[in-house]
Inverse folding.
């Protein structure tokens, strides 16, 4: 009788240890293009590794979370992603759900973010629609496009259905989570797996708290500025707030058919989110903020590449304007803050005469 492979042993352990409502790797709906099974890793472990080794994942280290081209200690899109993965895994383990699936979704959820954060996302969406009225840029759709199409020279990563579903359904925008037992969902369709739902709520837990931390470090707010009613429920310290939110999700989700918070903790969480939008995120839109500069950079690059496609990497579709606009959109979306700035300077700023 043949000895079981490491993957088969892991799948057997999942059957024994995980809750009945967990998503088992052996029951995955599979990949768009079937592949031979890995003898060492489950399908979800393999997806996680493919994301970590992708070029798009590495570029997250130099993409804005909130503060443009951040200095040391401020979060980047990569450190945000890692904090989301840590929180999501903690919840998944406590609920005996599939940690590998949860982590894979978390690591891939923001691959499609543009340079310069959400300001870059809005600017790229507007620039793209000027050349294709039916076009739209949304970072979560771009994350899915990266793993399905763009990575590995157009072959994509060929991830499992469950990971792609979690990535596609993670975004909430400013909408309230709507994940208490008494509230209806406001922020879009839920992922089909509980693991995907965990990542969705972990994303908000992570960014609310680390953005408060960064904003305090930047001198944009103090603890006294935050809503006292929210701090009374969640705690005054960074670690206290995360612990309160995570413990509440675990307690409320033990026997529920979805991942949820209690009404009181959810209200406080949404209250902090609203405060951050009104007093931190939206400030950057004004004439004194950085978003006008972001708009200028993104729109300038888009227009120049459309006018001079020879400046683009090889393979740009030169005869089809809609296809070219899609290519330019993908190219700019993949840039880091630094690279986008360098390209703008190279294309629009006179160089010194050095002879």
């Amino acid at each position: 009788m043949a000895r079981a492979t490491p993957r088969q042993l892991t799948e057997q352990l999942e059957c024994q240890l995980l809750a009945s409502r967990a998503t088992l790797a052996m029951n995955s709906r599979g990949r768009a293009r079937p592949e031979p099974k890995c003898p060492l890793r489950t399908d979800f472990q393999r997806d996680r590794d493919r994301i970590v080794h992708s070029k798009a994942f590495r570029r997250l280290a130099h993409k804005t979370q909130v503060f443009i081209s951040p200095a040391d200690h401020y979060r980047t899109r990569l450190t945000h992603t890692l904090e989301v993965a840590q929180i999501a895994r903690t919840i998944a383990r406590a609920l005996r759900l599939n940690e590998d699936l949860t982590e894979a979704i978390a690591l891939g959820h923001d691959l499609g973010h543009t340079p310069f954060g959400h300001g870059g996302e809005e600017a790229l969406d507007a620039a793209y629609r000027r050349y294709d009225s039916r076009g739209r840029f949304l970072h979560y759709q771009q994350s899915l496009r990266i793993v399905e199409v763009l990575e590995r020279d157009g072959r994509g990563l060929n991830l499992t259905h469950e990971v792609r579903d979690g990535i596609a359904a993670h975004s909430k925008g400013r909408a309230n989570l709507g994940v208490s037992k008494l509230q209806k969902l406001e922020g879009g369709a839920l992922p089909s797996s509980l693991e995907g739902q965990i990542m969705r709520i972990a994303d908000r837990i992570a960014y609310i708290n680390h953005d408060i931390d960064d904003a305090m470090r930047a001198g944009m707010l103090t603890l006294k500025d935050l809503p006292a009613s929210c701090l009374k429920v969640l705690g005054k310290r960074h670690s206290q707030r995360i612990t309160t939110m995570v413990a509440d999700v675990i307690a409320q989700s033990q026997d529920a058919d979805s991942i949820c918070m209690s009404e009181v903790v959810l209200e406080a969480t949404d209250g902090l989110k609203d405060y951050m939008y009104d007093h931190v995120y939206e400030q950057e839109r004004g004439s004194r903020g950085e978003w006008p500069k972001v708009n200028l950079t993104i729109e300038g690059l888009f227009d120049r590449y459309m006018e001079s496609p020879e400046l683009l990497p090889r393979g740009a579709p030169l005869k089809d304007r809609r296809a070219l606009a899609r290519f330019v959109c993908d190219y700019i979306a993949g840039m880091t803050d630094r690279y986008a700035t360098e390209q703008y300077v190279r294309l629009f700023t006179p160089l010194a005469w050095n002879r």
Notes: The mean pLDDT is 92. The domain at 43-348 is CATH 1.10.3210.10 (Hypothetical protein af1432). The chain has one domain: 43-348.
